[in-house]
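Narrative summary of target 7.
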Amino acid sequence: MIYKINEINEEIAWHPAAFAERCEAEYDARVKEAARAIAENVGKSPVILLSGPSGAGKTTTARRIEDELDRMGLRCHTISMDNYFKTIDPKTVPRTPEGDIDFESPKMLDMDLLNEHFEALREHKEIRIPYFMFARQKRSASQFTRLRLGENEVAIFEGIHALNDEITDKNPDAFGLYISAMAEYELEDGAVWKPEWTRLLRRVVRDNNFRGSDAKFTMSLWENVMRGERAHITPYIPKARIKVDSTVAYELPLLRNKALPLLADIEAGMPGYDEISKLAPFIEEFRPMPDEYCPAQSLLREFIGGGIYEY
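Modeled conformation, tokenized:
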């Protein structure tokens, strides 16, 4: 999908409420399509594997699919695969070329336990979902969540490595789902905004709002995030049975005024400066969209706050 920036600006100038409503309806239609496909697969497996890169909107999309499945009579449970991280051993933990802990690596995950749990859920046996304490970089010895799937119940396992071969090869009937912002935006001169920039803006704004991180910190991680994406996520996209574009067409006008002051802190010589110098002038071309037109259930609330879901 390619959106024309001049057309978006005209919509915002004259019909902002109707435009936002139409954009949200387009995203909602994609969610409903995914939910219907999942429901058709329940007879084969109650397990849904939801993957996507950083800033894709996986969490809200999972919640929205969960809501839709509930309306279809399927009780749904969403589990973050981050809780299946192994307790970190400094001697064996995967590291980036720079020597930092590589949280993008699938080696961080306890694949054996995940596959054991998928099999148990298919057999309607109880599992104990672990709890990973990020502040202490270890799995809790006492905290866990019990889960047993009954009839008409499904479980969404959401994480960047959900479609990895180590999982999908052992669970061929599980429903694979890939989420990402896929749309491009085009200026009148033909210049094109890359989808990965949308995800970057989402993450910069979210990290500042919810994680106390400035843009400098986010950009210091971005190179490794993209490296991990190319190595550990993109190769497995073909394993997805359906792909959901999480782009909400008015989001860049919505993120514009929040992102630009944050990006202004990135100076020459800092990580990500070259990337920011390309996208910042581009986003300035959008007419701003006020938050008031963004509904509380919108995926965009995952990044700007004020939504109905807890993250």
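Residues 16-41 form the longest helix (26 residues).
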